[in-house]
Amino acid sequence: MSVLKNSVRMTLVSAAALTVVASIASATPSTTSTTTVALSAGDRHKPSAKPTVVLVHGAFADASGWNDTAQQLRHRGFAVQAVANPLRGLDYDSAYLTAQLKGVKGPKILVGHSYGGAVITNAAAGVPEVKALVYIAAFAPDRGEALGGLLEQHADPTVPQLPQQAFQFTRPDGSARWEISLDPAKFRAAFAADVRRDVAGRMAAAQRPVAAEAFGQPAKHAAWKTVPSWALVARQDRAIAPSLERFMAKRAGAHVTEVNSSHAVMVSRPDAVTDVINQAYRATR
Question: 166: which strand partners?
Fold first, then answer.
């Protein structure tokens, strides 16, 4: 038990440096982007020619966070699948997504938010027809890197500790496990400061906890080494430090767009997220 508590404590420290989710000011944020791609008439009328966009959420969230992004993508003619990420640990979640992807026929663009970025980085390896990886305020670890280690190595004193709550439960086999969630009262400030208060309240209530070991398991693959990548950096992210997002994007050779947004950029700025995904499509079609 003491070993488990120490392991969890180390994970929490890492996740604190991590701050896997974010926050920004409460006004409609301005956007500056290294590239802006206009929607052409042809984009709206060729659904069969476009890849399926697979959206993978991160910790302290669920698939509903992609609703507005998915709607905009469908309007542009994309098929969309928003996966329910199990949040049981990087190995488990990556294996789950790999199995899901094998059921998606034809070309695919994988999009990961936050912890979901680590999952797509692992899962895409060996899956045919993945045309692009898109990182939305997300982790993009290299092989052998754990997310907690990345957070510690790239700690930013301007990014506060996440208001985490840990709880323990006993599995049917008698083993104990720890889960981490965010304090609902502090969720908006930490995760979604530029999201409407009522919407952020619903997000806090519906958040799904993540297994504590998720930030301690090393990545087994780094698909960005062979698959083209795009990254959206949330400049006012207070979960993952923007400097860490830039570091990982640069290392991956990603095409980078930056916006003034909180960590929950897919909720506050679905237009910016959709534009980055469209950039990836147009560059790889």
Answer: 180
pLDDT digits (tens, 9 = 90+) for 124-172: 988 989 999 999 999 999 999 999 999 999 989 888 889 999 999 888 9
C-alpha count within 13 angstroms, C-beta hemisphere, residue 103: 6
Q: What percent of the chain has pLDDT over 90?
A: 76
Write the pLDDT tens digit of every residue in 41-89. 444 444 457 999 999 999 999 999 999 999 999 999 999 999 999 999 9
Q: Which of the two residues, 119 and 128, has the higher pLDDT score?
A: 119
Token pair recorded at residue 131: 């045309």
Q: With 0-12 CB in 10 A as exposed, 13-18 as middle and 19+ as buried, what is 243?
A: middle
* C-alpha torsion angle, residues 199, 120, 162, 256 (rounded to 10): -80
- Count CB atoms within 10 A of the CB of residue 99: 11
Rounded Cα distance between 19 and 34, Å, is 25
Q: Please report the domains of the chain, with CATH numbers, ordered by start residue.
A: 2-284 (3.40.50.1820)
Closest CA to 193 of 1, 5, 22: 22
**Reduced 3-state DSSP string for the chain:** CHHHHHHHHHHHHHHHHHCCCCCCCCCCCCEECCCCCCCCHHHHCCHHHCCEEEEECCCCCCHHHHHHHHHHHHHCCCEEEEECCCCCCHHHHHHHHHHHHHCCCCCEEEEEECHHHHHHHHHCCCCCCEEEEEEECCCCCCCCCCHHHHHHHCCCCCCCCCCEEEEEEECCCCCEEEEEEECHHHHHHHHCCCCCHHHHHHHHHHCCCEEHHHHCCCCCCCHHHCCCEEEEEECCCCCCCHHHHHHHHHHHCCEEEEECCCCCHHHHCHHHHHHHHHHHHHHHC
